[in-house]
Specification:
By secondary structure, this protein is mainly beta. Helix content is 11%, strand content 40%. It has a domain of 44 residues.
């Protein structure tokens, strides 16, 4: 239409010009008609005007409301209907699943806050499971299992996953592998940050297989067994997490070798941090207070313990048993009910530069056939001995500073 109007305007302009000065009106009209015909002929020869090839891009962000008034009525319908990589934005409220939900596509879930948006299911097995390459992410959402059937809450197997400001609660135990708040398995990579996992029947967060996540700033509270579990060949980093109110704060088995840094593993019934099997990795600047044991290393575990504070525990600060090894350096083990550090059985760690003070029994104590290097440690004001070595044990002592202990500074017939 715009092109036709342009042609008419040209014709009128030509007509006006010729009428203002020039030939008679009949001749002008004839010339204008010829010009218009010429323009139409040229345009016709060039072919029709091009048609648009624009394809509308489908939306990638969808809303859900607890009353069903969003883009989809239910979460299950949304997961089936949205495209790969879509974002689902949840309003405040409770979103109840009629069964467990398995997500197999890349998806991003955004709630209004873990105290305002809650996804709930009573199904057996899990509330939500993700499997695939990802990325899969969730933020500002609470996930809760509300039934009596054995289930974990959220399970991720493989791919990239990220959780921020989420809550995982209500997992129930009915078998050996149930009762986990958040379970990362396979080759899962990604992060869990500023989340809460509490009141689960077994474990707050389990990292298994070859998963390598970064766990930072989370709170694992009042889970029946353990706050964080590493098993298999899992690794990654756990930094500045709080693990309290369970049997243990952090437990490691298999060949797991994560880096544990600046975590608070306090007020657990038995262990702050527990290494077993052939685990390794590093524990750096963690706080293990008011447990039965601060850190216990057994079997053939061989972690590097550096700069940890293991104090005010009912039993001891750090313990080695079986054939455990590795090293403990610059740790503070004070005001414990028995020993600052003890070494039993055939364990053979290297102890260097630790401060073992004000423990009820000994600063550093060796039993059975334990051995290893003990150097440059400070053992002071302990109830019995600074360093006590049972006659069958055979550690090498070098440059230790032991003084003001109750029964003696270094004793070899303990």
């Amino acid at each position: 239409m715009r092109m036709k109007m342009r042609w008419v305007a040209i014709c009128l302009l030509i007509a006006l010009l010729f009428s203002a000065c020039g030939p008679p009106q009949a001749e002008v009209d004839g010339m204008a008609t010829q010009v218009a015909a010429s323009i139409l002929s040229t345009q016709s020869a060039a072919g029709p005007a091009p048609t648009s090839t624009f394809t509308p891009v489908p939306p990638t962000t969808f809303t859900l409301q607890a009353d069903g008034s969003g883009d989809y009525v239910t979460l299950a319908e949304a997961v089936r209907g949205v495209p790969e990589g879509a974002t689902l934005i949840f309003g405040p409220g409770v979103y109840r699943l009629t069964g467990r939900l398995h997500v197999r596509k890349s998806l991003h879930l955004m709630g209004a806050g873990m105290g305002q948006t809650e996804i709930v299911s009573a199904a057996e097995g899990y509330v939500i499971r993700f499997s695939g390459d990802g990325p899969f992410s969730a933020e500002d959402i609470a996930f809760r299992h509300a039934g009596e059937a054995a289930a974990s809450v959220v399970v991720v197997r493989g791919g990239e996953a990220a959780f921020a400001r989420c809550r995982f609660t209500g997992a129930t135990v009915g078998g050996e592998r149930d009762g986990v708040g958040l379970w990362l398995e396979g080759k899962t990579d990604g992060s869990v940050q500023d989340c809460v996992s509490d009141e689960n029947g077994n474990v707050g967060l389990l990292v298994g297989g070859r998963a390598q996540p970064t766990l930072e700033g989370n709170r694992f509270m009042n889970n029946t067994a353990v706050g964080i579990v590493y098993e298999g060949e899992a690794g990654g980093v756990a930094r500045r997490n709080q693990c309290s109110g369970g049997m243990a704060g952090i437990s490691l088995s298999g060949q797991a070798d994560p880096t544990l840094e600046e975590n608070q593993c306090n007020d657990n019934d038995v262990y702050g941090i527990f290494y077993m099997d052939e685990t390794g990795g590093q524990a750096i600047r963690n706080e293990c207070l008011r447990n039965e044991m601060g850190i216990l290393v057994v079997d053939r575990a061989r972690p590097t313990l550096e700069g940890n504070v293991c104090s005010e525990n009912e039993d001891s600060g750090i313990g080695y048993q079986d054939n455990a090894s590795g090293s403990a350096s610059e740790n503070e083990c004070s005001r414990n009910g028995y020993h600052g550090i003890y070494v039993y059985d055939h364990a053979w760690p290297t102890l260097k530069g630790n401060v073992c003070a004000d423990n009820e029994d000994g600063g550093i104590s060796y039993f059975d056939n334990a051995t290893g290097l003990v150097s440059e440690n400070e053992c002071v004001r302990n109830g019995k001995y600074g360093i006590a070595v049972q006659i069958t044990a055979n550690p090498t002592l070098m440059g230790n500073d032991c003084h003001d202990n109750g029964l003696g500074d270094i004793e070899h017939t303990y």
